[in-house]
């Protein structure tokens, strides 16, 4: 880990504005996207803890299996061979790996790593990703990043935010400088996370999570202030609906695919997702989110 990434536990725990955040992903605990978000959450004053797969587990949806002892080194040689079924960074107990799937990692985050670090307390919020690559429409049910967020809501009763980034840049945790997309997506994720937290508890309606997709990083879309967050739906209209009344009485929200791939602007899609089936949540749940986030969300036209 880069020295700037480490913040002593007591420094974070003493923050008056920080909350307990459990992190995971499906790309692996040593990927730069996850680690950059971890560092950004710590800088924002949050008590963040990582519990993620020991290696890339993309596309594993909601699979779950008891971790098995490793014989090979972890992703990017981030743990030595024969390290057992689970493990932690030798100098930072906030960074933990599980030799299994993202859903399993979330379970260990709640029951083992988080319980140890937080003296039995549960996380206030679960944040997964940013996924390396988008999770749009038909990709959603297969994503381990999405599956981990759904697990937190469905089986642990904890609100969750899942982040995915269209620009797919794989890099190890100790790559210097980190990929531009990793840093930018981390800052964007913290921006939405902060807005959700500022809206007050309960952070989200029961039974839902937010699935957020960042568009490609480009010369035009390269700074946090370039981006606008838009409320969207996961599946096309007709598979579910109507949606919440937003932006001029239209009860058909744009799809996340439409928004993220729009060449006109740097639009971030924010979909209210049902944790049970990973599709668009009903209008009443969307309305609650609209009421909480208010002007943070931009009208799309």
Automatic annotation (TrEMBL):
Alphabetical UniProt keywords: Hydrolase, Metal-binding
GO molecular function: metal ion binding; nucleotidase activity
InterPro entries according to UniProt: SurE (IPR030048), SurE-like_Pase/nucleotidase (IPR002828), SurE-like_sf (IPR036523)
Region annotation (Disordered) ranges: 53-91
Every Survival protein SurE-like phosphatase/nucleotidase domain range: 21-221
Record SUPFAM superfamilies: SurE-like
Keyword DNA-binding attached: no
A matching Pfam family: SurE
PANTHER family: 5'-NUCLEOTIDASE SURE, PHOSPHATASE, PUTATIVE (AFU_ORTHOLOGUE AFUA_4G01070)-RELATED
Family as reported in the entry's similarity comment: Belongs to the SurE nucleotidase family.
Protein name: Survival protein sure-like phosphatase/nucleotidase
């Amino acid at each position: 880990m880069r020295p700037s990434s480490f913040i002593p536990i007591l420094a974070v725990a003493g923050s008056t504005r920080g909350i307990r955040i459990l992190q995971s992903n499906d790309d692996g605990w040593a990927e730069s996207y996850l680690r950059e978000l971890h560092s950004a959450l710590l800088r924002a004053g949050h008590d963040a803890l990582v519990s993620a797969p020991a290696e890339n587990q993309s596309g594993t949806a909601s699979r779950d299996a008891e971790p098995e002892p490793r014989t090979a080194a972890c992703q990017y040689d981030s743990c030595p061979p024969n390290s057992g079924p689970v493990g932690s960074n030798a100098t930072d107990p906030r960074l933990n790996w599980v030799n299994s799937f993202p859903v399993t990692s979330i379970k260990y985050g709640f029951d083992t790593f988080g319980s140890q670090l937080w003296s039995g307390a549960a996380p206030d919020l679960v944040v997964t990703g940013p996924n390396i690559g988008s999770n749009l429409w038909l990709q959603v049910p297969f994503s381990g990043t999405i599956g981990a967020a759904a697990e937190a809501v469905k089986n642990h009763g904890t609100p969750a935010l899942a982040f995915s980034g269209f620009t797919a840049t794989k890099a190890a945790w100790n790559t210097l400088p980190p990929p531009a997309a990793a840093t930018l997506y981390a800052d964007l994720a913290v921006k939405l996370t902060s807005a959700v937290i500022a809206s007050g508890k309960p952070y989200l309606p029961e039974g839902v999570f937010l699935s957020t997709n960042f568009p490609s990083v480009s010369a035009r879309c390269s700074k946090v202030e370039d981006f606008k967050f838009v409320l969207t739906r996961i599946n096309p209209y007709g598979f579910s609906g109507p949606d919440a009344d937003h932006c001029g009485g239209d009860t058909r929200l744009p799809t996340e695919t439409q928004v993220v791939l729009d060449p006109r602007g740097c639009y971030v899609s924010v979909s209210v997702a049902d944790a049970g089936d990973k599709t668009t949540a009903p209008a009443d749940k969307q309305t609650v989110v609209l009421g909480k986030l208010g002007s943070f969300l931009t009208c799309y036209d």
